[in-house]
Specification:
It is a single chain. The chain is mainly β. The chain contains no helices and 11 strands. The strands form 2 sheets. Strands 2, 4, 5, 6, 9, 10 and 11 form a 7-stranded mixed sheet that branches. Strands 1-3-8-7 form a 4-stranded antiparallel sheet, with no helix packed on it. A hairpin with a 4-residue loop joins strand 7 and strand 8.
Length: 122
């Protein structure tokens, strides 16, 4: 079992930045790929970014590429999502998740956090 707890969400103006954190406990974190997903009100949850266990080969959705950066610190059992140049359309609940391998496919993620709200005002 892996427990995931997100933090760092909040209200920010367009053009601003936020850094989300996801703290993991339980099973060995460093063996897992990690992903960030988001769900806006009335929309389906969508892929944002993912990273392998070794921090190599991050993958980003086109909508966030160049603005968001996923990283992880295996010594701290934490994965981060640095979000810059935020736009109102980035407003959503952001979830972190853990999977055996890096993927964009949600059903392949075995563990999910409870989510943290990010609101970007125009």
């Amino acid at each position: 079992q892996v427990q995931l707890v997100e933090s760092g969400g909040g209200l920010v103006q367009a053009g601003g930045s936020l850094r989300l954190s996801c703290a993991a406990s339980g099973r060995t974190f460093s063996n897992l790929a990690m992903g960030w997903f988001r769900q806006a009100l009335g929309k389906e949850r969508e892929f944002v970014a993912s990273i392998t266990w070794s921090t190599a080969y991050p993958d980003y959705a086109d909508s966030v590429k160049g603005r968001f950066t996923i990283s992880r610190d295996n010594a701290k059992n934490t994965v981060y999502l640095q979000m810059n140049s935020l736009k109102p359309e980035d407003t959503a609940v952001y979830y972190c998740a853990a999977a055996p391998t890096r993927t964009r496919i949600q059903r392949l993620y075995d563990y999910w956090g409870q989510g943290t709200q990010v609101t970007v005002s125009s």
